[in-house]
Amino acid sequence: MNSENMVGLTAAAGFQIGVRRTLTLSQEKAWELLTSPQGRKLWLGETPTILFEKGHTFCTKEGINGVLRVVKPNEQLRLSWQPASWEEASTLQIRLLPAASPGRTTISFHQEKLDSMQHREEMKVRWEAVLNRLMELKIK
Description:
With about 140 residues, this protein is α+β, with helices and mostly antiparallel strands. The chain is built from 3 helices and 7 strands. The model has no long low-confidence stretch (mean pLDDT about 90).
């Protein structure tokens, strides 16, 4: 299969995937949701502790390792993301973007440096499920 037929493949960043949803939350409340123990467990997994500070390393009970590279409260997280079964780390970026209407925020998950179409598809399913569960958690 040539690269023109491979969805999500870029020359510079390998395979990538982006998923986003708009929630009826301010950026501050969306940040609180993402970084709360319940919200964090949805997208990151179970971690004994995590400090949302640049350079903080983490390892989840599910075997995902990474390092926080960018932490901008209420706006952005950028981190390396490597499940135990992967040979190389990918880059995950979570952005909180103000939506057109006040009191609404778009949560965007973008992952790049994925090494295969299979990992791209797996992560697409994961991030869509995470956003759906975050929306459900927000309602509770």
